Amino acid sequence: MIGRAAVVLAAGQGTRMRSRLPKVLHPLAGRPMLQHVLASLAEAGIEQQVVVVGHDAEQVEAAVGGGATTTVRQEPQKGTADAVRIGLELLDSGTQQVVVAMGDAPLVPAAVFEELLSAQAAGDACIALLASRPSDPSGYGRLVRDAGGSLQAIVEEDDADAAVLELGEVNAGTYCFDAGWLRANIGAVPVSPSGEHYLTDLVEIAISGGSRVVVVSSPRAELAMGINDRSGLAAAERILRGEIAERHMRNGVTIVDPSSTFIDIDVQIGEDARIEPWTVLSGATRIGSDAVIGPQAQILDSKIGARTTVWSSVVESSVVGEDVEIGPYSHLRPGCEIGPGCRIGNFTELKKTRIGAGSQIHHFSYLGDADVGEAVNIGAGTITANFDGTAKHRTTIGDRAFIGVDTMLRAPVSIGPGARTGAGAVVTRDVPAGETVVGMPARRIGTRQRKAPDRNPEQGGGKPRSDA
Amino acid sequence: MIGRAAVVLAAGQGTRMRSRLPKVLHPLAGRPMLQHVLASLAEAGIEQQVVVVGHDAEQVEAAVGGGATTTVRQEPQKGTADAVRIGLELLDSGTQQVVVAMGDAPLVPAAVFEELLSAQAAGDACIALLASRPSDPSGYGRLVRDAGGSLQAIVEEDDADAAVLELGEVNAGTYCFDAGWLRANIGAVPVSPSGEHYLTDLVEIAISGGSRVVVVSSPRAELAMGINDRSGLAAAERILRGEIAERHMRNGVTIVDPSSTFIDIDVQIGEDARIEPWTVLSGATRIGSDAVIGPQAQILDSKIGARTTVWSSVVESSVVGEDVEIGPYSHLRPGCEIGPGCRIGNFTELKKTRIGAGSQIHHFSYLGDADVGEAVNIGAGTITANFDGTAKHRTTIGDRAFIGVDTMLRAPVSIGPGARTGAGAVVTRDVPAGETVVGMPARRIGTRQRKAPDRNPEQGGGKPRSDA
Amino acid sequence: MIGRAAVVLAAGQGTRMRSRLPKVLHPLAGRPMLQHVLASLAEAGIEQQVVVVGHDAEQVEAAVGGGATTTVRQEPQKGTADAVRIGLELLDSGTQQVVVAMGDAPLVPAAVFEELLSAQAAGDACIALLASRPSDPSGYGRLVRDAGGSLQAIVEEDDADAAVLELGEVNAGTYCFDAGWLRANIGAVPVSPSGEHYLTDLVEIAISGGSRVVVVSSPRAELAMGINDRSGLAAAERILRGEIAERHMRNGVTIVDPSSTFIDIDVQIGEDARIEPWTVLSGATRIGSDAVIGPQAQILDSKIGARTTVWSSVVESSVVGEDVEIGPYSHLRPGCEIGPGCRIGNFTELKKTRIGAGSQIHHFSYLGDADVGEAVNIGAGTITANFDGTAKHRTTIGDRAFIGVDTMLRAPVSIGPGARTGAGAVVTRDVPAGETVVGMPARRIGTRQRKAPDRNPEQGGGKPRSDA
Description:
CATH topology of the largest domain in chain A: Spore Coat Polysaccharide Biosynthesis Protein SpsA, Chain A
Low-confidence stretches of chain A: 447-468
Largest interface: A-C, 53 and 52 residues
Structural class of chain A: alpha/beta
Oligomer: homotrimer
CATH architecture of the largest domain in chain A: Alpha-Beta Complex
CATH superfamily of the largest domain in chain A: Spore Coat Polysaccharide Biosynthesis Protein SpsA, Chain A
Number of helices of chain A: 10
Helix content of chain A: 10-25%
Mean pLDDT of chain A: 92
Number of domains of chain A: 2
């Protein structure tokens, strides 16, 4: 332990969000904003993290979950200094530096937290404070510096005269404190007229007491500031998305239009993959090298193999092999495994289905709860009737089977290797390997020739056809 | 009546649009641009509106429709002052203030019209004139002010020397006149070398006559200016769309990417709804609270209930209840009513169809002209044959019916409550409540067991299955 | 021949792209970036073009193809001056001016090449050099000018002091040389410490030798600069796309959201067409006047007729007539010809299929390798079984035929004019004109009435129905 901890302020109500969801839980690039803060703190080497919660405490506590992060409630809510005081009580006694982070400022990079830690330590300061220059500073406390650049005061907007209001440098609300100094002084923060204790007052306490306060300037103002409303949320989403896209492009991924591509923060993409416009890659998705995804593809929590194309389709929680072609307009629902070289054509729905290498489902089919072998051809209009109103049943199709157009497969049912079904067949019983069945319900051709001459394959109906 | 009226100039040809559609009728966020102007004037409390039309007069007249707005033709077209003179003749005699608005400047906010009215009245001026500072002032008349800031002249670009051309403040072309002064002076506008009468000359007449002209500065230049070409149209669309998105975000709607979301001006959205990217909400659409719309959804003139999700689907002129899930890749054509808790799965088409609460249509089905009860399960591949080549017929499906996969329902036909159909059934006659039918054409199992033992449900084909 | 030639530098490795594809072959708006350079040079009247290739020479040579362009290999790669020396050897002896262009700077407009040619000739200069002012000049050689504005030196960043680093004007790397001077001096370029010969040194040779070097400033910095990484590629794509959209808007095309519309460089669009958001028009696509394309349409190498709408659908390598409606969610695969007035509804797949005027395929159908007449109605769920596992076969449907829902057409098969099929029919033999067939396999109603009374059309199943 190097004695570093963080208190994360997540008690605010966020009324300008106008939401029943606590502000710090609104998602950004696939994660609640609070988790971005915690991840950056962890990346900066701060392992002990105490989140101070207030409004909607249960929801926030549930979202933070276990791990190294502790939550503590602030009730009633009496300001940021009060929240820090509560959080402080949970920190290890060996803590030497305390970062105070805002739960609604999800874009502060780990490097900025590191710089605050370094600046506080190197400067032998009681406080290192993050400053920024937002395009619109109104509403924020202004930093007043002396001729030498040292911080003289933070003046809140209500107390500021015209000259101070002109100052563009503001207090971003993120700090690193010397733990001992913080413990000694947190109780001295006065009560404001509104009955709250503001963290900003610690700056005045430090300066008037002759302690050093150092200022760290945020490299990009928009990364330092908190999110107050949905407009700010959308802006943060855009910034974060731009950074994620830049990272993948540096890694050798072509992103045709980064501004119209939504890639969640944990997604991995191989070299020379090409991401076409209007594409979503979310959750724990992994895209193989040389894959072409989009336009208009949505890949959720799935693994896509190298050289595979997913065109204007949705893939959910599935594993797709190499050299597969999917789409346009197909939907892989959760639980699919697609072997290499398969062709999942347009208007195809798969669910909890495994498809062997080189099989083809070119058009208009629904396979659910199915195991399909290799080199199988599924004709257009094929449907697995996997639900009998009570339970789901599985369908098995052997290697090299040829399923005719408009075949209904009433599960549980098994089609043997090399077997064939005729157009419009309603298959209700297992079909042995190499056999051909036709009709409704489907019968073997031999059997049917005897019993039902009008189904003679010579006259049609019996010879299975499929489409491509 | 408070004596306020507007003359809207809509006679111009708009040749740079290169369109057969009159310029002022090109749509923006779901309305012709002229209607944006009329709506802002009405919002500013100006009820009498006269639109002066010229080119393609019939189309513009038809689009303005009835209501409080009158149209009058300017033939031949002899300039903006001539158009105002013609419009003036139709105003009530009690009119005290006359706003002159451009039909091709659809982004001028009501607040700017109000400010012009106030400025004219308060300043006891004969003219209040709207000024702006566009990023590229070329082509516009420059405002020349004296040291005290009073307007001295408007100098057209052709008459301007280098110093004047440097001035960035231009005449936006929108005015508020004292009605009496305007009536007295409109006839004095001289003929230009091109044979037209320009409204701008009234400013010179006023100044040289010692009357006051006050200037109102547009808060955002891009809102004041007219649209001249399709590039300007696209820019206006972007601005307007951004403002609409901001309004919804302030109301507590999450819009993940405002720049890729197209929301028409009259759409209403409930709190905590989430609008995903690449989504169109158009016409009179209303979205309930906590709904999730998109990505890639198109909702046209429809009402979507609270907590309902519409994913990558199209909904046209329909009413969808609460807690419904639609998509991906479904299409509700006009005239559908979907009860609460329904699941309209992927690849489903509905038309003029009512679905009761809790029914499921998971995949690949077309229901047209159908009445479906509650808790019905529609198997994949179900189709209503609602058209016999001559007329459309209705299909009725009772509560808790179970329609097997690939069932054809030849309308008019009725499936009773709790009835079932087998896979591939072609239903041509009504099915009583609780009965099961199978086959092509479909028969009751009891009947069929006697006549057609090869359809014995023990052997399959008879036991209805569906899919999920 | 006017004695103008170009040497295009395309030998660089482009390591920052992190790609197996040579940098100059990465596509932009539908063309490899190198071809944009060659097209602009040709547009500027430079017909002889020598491309100097190095890394991945075979791929680049293959992509440049034949035509007026020659390629030559630089092996080993010893710098830009060495590359120019190699290219120079292939130029006609009558060449008077040599443009040196970068293969990775695809946005340099023809007008800039023309200006370099003019400036070199008019100024009697040995070199005309392209300068630009990028927003971030770091990494580029800075132009140092004297008080009179004449170029004094190009100082590479490593050799620059602080004052020079402050200069924002940089060498863009594109030149026009006097051919004789270049031939005389190219051998004098010294070897750098890294063992390469840099073209920039020619500027010093010229200046120190008392020859004139003139500077042409790029009107927009972002057009002059080379692409170094995928981020630069995405930025170039955006710029190029914006210019293409502007061109179409000037021609009278409405593009609702240019930033979300991807139009390849060779696409043609008629007046008053409307391109909705999230639309791709690629390859040799031609869109007729008054067509409405999108939202979410992808038109690849296809011709779309006037007044036709393509809504949320994909059209590949097909020809669509006038007044056709397609979509949403349809897919025309290569080789389709759609007659005027057709309606290709939702969830329809067509492949190598010709459809006559006024025919309707409203929903859920797959037609492959089919010839469909005029005024045909194709019911929902119709499928051509065009593949028998070995070969593809054609389906023919005559004028005014009425194909019932869920009809399977087992190719090769022909449906005569005015013929009808029943719901669920599996058609395996030709149907004569005007006849009606039903059942699996489908039989003429007359025949079936005798043999199979349970299929009596009076009882249903026999009377064909379709849907609309």
